[in-house]
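Incident log, structure service

09:12 report received: a user says their structure output differs between two submissions of the same chain.
09:20 pulled the input from the user's history:
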Amino acid sequence: MKPHDEQKLERLIHHTLRALPDRKAPRSLESRVLAGIAARQALPWWRQSFAHWPLAVRGAFFVLAGGLAAGLVLLGATGSADSLHAVRGLLAPVAQVRAVATFVADLGATVFRSIPPFWLYGAIAFIAALYAALLGLGATAYRTLVVNR
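09:34 re-ran on a clean worker, output below:
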């Protein structure tokens, strides 16, 4: 197809689509949307998003959260042995997950360091060649199936 023909076709399609009438929304759409908005507004403040909470409640939440964080820090720094033991008991699963993650990361680093650099460069070059082939096949398929119609 010549560029001049493509422009004429584009103008024809544009004109044809502009001549179509607008689609009408269903009659029940407006009432359903307004009912949904009213249902959201009817929710109590604690079931709405944080931005819709009263300002005093948001301030109290920040003060309470800050106080709780400060209390935990103080408990960790100057707490008694029993309270520290209780907190450590609650955080034991987190420490176990961290230990496993550290082991896996160390094992991965050891394996990675044992691979010769030439093999790594070869793997990177192979992946890049596969990616280029994928792009080439995609472009060929596009030109064959879409552009030449």
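09:41 both user submissions now match this output. Likely a transient worker issue. Closing.
09:42 reviewer note: The CA atoms of residues 73 and 79 lie 9 Å apart. DSSP finds six helices and no strands in the chain.
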